Amino acid sequence: MGELHKDLSDIQDPEAVVLLYEIAQVARLDLAQAQAQMLLHFLQQAFYPNGASEKSVPISKEDLDEVDPVDAYVLRKKIGKLGNYLFSVCKEITALHGKSAEDFAGSSLYVFFGKFFVTKKKKKKPFRFSQYR
What we know:
mainly alpha
């Protein structure tokens, strides 16, 4: 079982615990109530507060600037500068998408989450009768 499937209450890594508080603050979640959730579910709830069928909500630079004016949050750290535990979490997330965490070493963590948890809706092509002639 990977790190994404651990309950939040089982996470002991100090950097990861700080990250959970940061995500909860930016996403306006109650971390105390989320302790029995798996990490993956917590992240999904942070980026899809109204459920998976609704529009996702990314963490923007403006959101971070509002709550972290001194640029000290773990969310701002580059993937390549994370500790072993959080880097292993990033490796699990990228593996789910058939990618490698090393390819995102220069990305900030909040940008990384935006790439893997925030979906961009594809534009539908207009229906044309000419395609059936």
